[in-house]
Amino acid sequence: MANGEEAVAKVVKQSRCVTCIEFFGPDHCYQVSCEHFYCNGCLDDLFRSCLVDVSLYPPRCCRETISFDEIKTLLSLNIRADFLVKKEELDDDKKLYCKEPRCSAYIPHGNRTPISGTCPACTTTRCISCEEAPHEGTCEEKKESQEVHELAEKEGWRSCPACSALIELTIGCNHMTCRCSAQFCYICRLRWKTCTCPQWDENRLMARAHDVAHHEDPFAGADAVAAAARNPRERPECDHDSWARINESGLQSEECRDHLPRYIYRCRQCAIQACSRCRLNRL
Question: Residue limits of the RING-type domain (predicted)?
Fold first, then answer.
């Protein structure tokens, strides 16, 4: 926006939306706890998006949750109603869904027993553990379930202890954060920081260091790779507090896997690359 327009915005006490970068008056925007402003339309879009992408839930900016109760009057009636309907499912750390392909409805806690769940939409009942029809014996005796476990073991995948989603480790650190927000050790699957497993897989660490070094210089040598590997060893936990904007096209966000047409953000500490939405609302 031109300097003249910014001056006018200050006079009439307008604020700039962090998402669309437009100016809005106080009745049409909201300041979240991290002091960023969101216009009503972008708040609507964020709350709409988190209903279909659980990695965006709870809606947040700079890792601070945006309170639904505080901003619900700013949302459209449709988004407000949809969010209230979906909230139990989104807050459920042991989500259960109907196995029928034509249904796939969420099964709320009121429709569950310790061993089974009944779909409120199509009335199909299934085993909570293996997600198959109710059966005798243990779930491990089920052939199909065993085949999945064998494949995961062969490929080196791990299942999230909270939601059972299969996860593949692609970067060296064994600290895993599932899309359902559960944090656990990739080696033993215990809650993060409750085990004695090593922080890093050395081979993956060096592969990551090679990628980071070559982000900066396609012709980087062994010294640059060693320097890139040293940073995560010295500072294994990263809060992603400082970002650099990289004005190159075609770079990929490592969280959502989207390729960005004009620019991307790169964390100055761990060098993870992220789009604007991942940087503000997902990480």
Answer: 13-201
